[in-house]
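Ligand-bound model needed. iron/sulfur cluster.
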Amino acid sequence: MREESENLNKELESKEILKWAISTFPKICIAASFGKDSVVVLHLLKEIKPDIDVIYIDTGYEFPETIAFVEKLKKEWNLNLKVYRPAMSVEEQEKIYGKLYFKDPDKCCGFRKVEPMGRALQNYDAWITGLRMDETEFRKNIKIVESQNGITKINPIARWCEADVWDYINRNRIPYNPLYDKGYRSLGCKPCTLAGKWGRFERAGRWTGTGKQECGLHLEEYYQKYSSTTDVK
Ligand code: SF4
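Prediction:
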């Protein structure tokens, strides 16, 4: 019972944060990877602003299951989806750099995630994310409302833990990416994501063995480095 009421409180708090964000920022979007955290925030927004712009970055290295899930949810929830893609195709990038995700994953994420997201965010005053504090060492310092590169970032489920997310998904019978049922705990691009439990943190199956924890979407210095399309070749 205590756990139930704690979860309900977190849910109500997140809804209030979203209502505040929507009424405060006329030009607002949600950045969705369509992982479990994104679907929770999208579901919370369904009652508050169902037509919000949903930004999805298709890196070209996505799992086919993720692409299929994005299409399914777009159709079922009538999402106002805005897909952004990198300046270079995968083929162009591999012709110039080879397997950049092995050689220099920061640069690969810079080209394939940060640059297109920077382009997308030029149209908004604020963006909503599904970041949570317990995901990584870096994320434990995130705030519910932050500023990054001059744009307000709102993290409405920052205080939720991994179990809270699954509890919400199960209680509300929300569709989720089928890769979770294949043992993936955190989802990203196919070449950089492993199934299974690789470490203490939820995102340890991402860029395993490299020490990298973040793609750079939430790091100010990455935007400064990769925000210009003229730098991507
Ligand atoms: S997650 Fe991997 S494949 Fe995807 S953009 Fe980053 S380095 Fe490249």
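The two ends are 56 Å apart (CA to CA).
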